[in-house]
């Protein structure tokens, strides 16, 4: 029974009792006076709220769509029993919207000088830093007729990291990397950049790989095998302007780019390359430099977690100047940006010669799978018009990609689910052909 219902029931019973022995007006006054005295006594016996002590422990990081637990340790230093409802308030994005019972609400009964730990389970739905708001306590008296209420600020920050869903592709890409390195029984026939060993010629080998001096000392043709160079420099550049804020399916383009950057970073670190990261629109939004292979992935995820798109036009010239300062020697630059015709032609194309002069450049863009679905629609007049618009959009993206390829740039234009593996394949192809 609620507090309001309990109070009403007591009032009704009192009125019924005194109605037979006292005049009506006197009975009403008597009942109200008795009820007021009961409420004041109940309020006086309620445990004080301000004297409660709170400490917090628990998880400090969690991946998006994961589960985190924060613990509140509540100490009741008073001489009264605490009967309370407690709300551990967090931002709405810290909880799953489908939850029926708010996970932040707790009902407790704590004796004097007792300590109790309360656990709040969080299911974040957005990346970034989630801060605890406040702890609100409503302390009831023994009768439940009145309550004291107050709030405590118990700070805690939970950093929600990118989900990194593309990590499922990492074992397959690492297996191919081991083949390129010659660490498995399958040898790479393409040319790398570092001489590895000699083996017998087999049909299909490139004749340019035949070592004639070694062949002269043997009875069979000898072929040189190569392995990709290590310690190459890779700069992952995320353009965080307004085009990265567009949503493709259920996620922003920036989140899909982050997922691809994490997979490529993990793969390149295992390949022995040095990986840095830069997020830029009109200024540097995030930066990762100089990390070893062991701590690179944690550093990348921590830097990307609070990153959000800015609703401004990206400064291509400023971005090019920053890239030049970050790449004093030949590097692979992976630029995550859009393929919209106007921003590319007006901003990116003029600075391309300076970027490609001494660097290998990959442009990775997030394509919308909905465009392909619309282009295939012909069942209604509205679908025909939508298909025509989709074909026009697709043709414009192809023209933009062709203009970039004309400058010697590798272009990856894939949907969010395919961008990460396609980008990893492009990186491995550059390694196997000796372009990196």
From TrEMBL:
Keywords: Lipoprotein, Membrane, Transmembrane, Transmembrane helix. InterPro entries: DUF58. The keyword Transport does not apply. Residues 198-378 form the DUF58 domain. The chain crosses the membrane at residues 7-25. The keyword Transmembrane helix applies. This is Lipoprotein. It comes from Streptomyces tubercidicus.
